[in-house]
């Protein structure tokens, strides 16, 4: 016969693990959404000619520093079609596919 206290300990441990899994899943989903929004902001600031401002320059530099390393991965394989760069669109699609995979796996 099993000790009733051991059963409660296992249940408590499973509850903690389920909570940790749920927290990790929520963090990753929010991270992916925020990163996709940063990529959208990066695209918009690259299309629109902004007036010079030190503050706007810092925002554009931040977006470049955050988004460009990820987008360069896709630019290696997807050449631009004239003035149209499709790599951000493919990068965002990959992020959302990754989000679905994370939701399925976790």
Topology:
Elements: H1 4-47, H2 54-75, H3 87-105
Helix pairs in contact: 1-2, 1-3, 2-3
Please give a structural write-up.
The protein is an all-alpha fold and 106 residues long. It has one domain (24-105). Helix content is 80%, strand content 0%. It is built from 3 helices and no strands. The protein is elongated and about 70 Å long. The mean pLDDT is 87.
Brief rundown of the structure:
This protein has 106 residues and is an all-alpha fold. It has one domain (24-105).
Percentage beta strand: under 5%
Order of helices and strands: HHH
Q: How many domains?
A: 1
- Taking the alpha carbons of the first and last residues, their distance comes to 33 Å
- Overall residue-averaged pLDDT value: 87
How would you describe the oligomerization state of the chains in this entry? single chain
Q: How many β-strand stretches?
A: 0
Classify the helix fraction into a percent range.
over 70%
- Sheet having the most strands: none
Q: What is the helix tally? A: 3
Summing up helix and strand content along with how strands pair, one would put the structural category as mainly alpha
What is the rounded Rg?
21 Å
Taken from the alpha-carbon principal axes, the silhouette is: elongated
Regions with pLDDT < 50 over 5+ consecutive residues?
Answer: none
